[in-house]
Known about the structure:
Elements: E1 3-4, H1 9-35, H2 40-51, E2 68-71, E3 76-81, H3 82-105, H4 108-113, H5 115-140, H6 153-160
Antiparallel strand pairs: 1-2, 2-3
Helix pairs in contact: 1-2, 1-3, 5-6
Amino acid sequence: MQVLIHLDEEYYYTVLSIGLVIMVVGLLREFLSLKFPASDILLASTVGIILGPSIANAINPFDWNGTYLETEMGDIDRHFPIVYKYVTELMRIVLAVQLVAFALSVPWDYIAKAWKAQSVLLTLIMVFMWLASSVVVFIAFKIPFNGARELNFWESLLIGKQ
């Protein structure tokens, strides 16, 4: 199914500005971490709060509701603005790059020493997290909301794996 995208010019600038902010913070991360003894997550959250709608209103996702996905048959999905899709994909790319950077920075000696703890984390703890998120999804879909149907537990397990 082909998806046609119709964006106004302001949305291009919004998506580009988010990418620019991520690049500038990434470039200044080393300098800022030397000046301010804070973690990267705290630094990114602070920049997001400052640039967000609460303080500077430079990046305001509440204004991004004018452009929607249009399918090849002309149907428009009014519940899913296209800019949310771009922001979500941009965040996935940033998260993937950060995870790869972290994985490459872990020394091989540590991996060899801590293989038992990592095995427990990657098997037992991740299975427990999967089951816990599936239970949350199962309970959440028992609450009537906008005509959403109830899910059985197997469907909740499929959503919980995401």
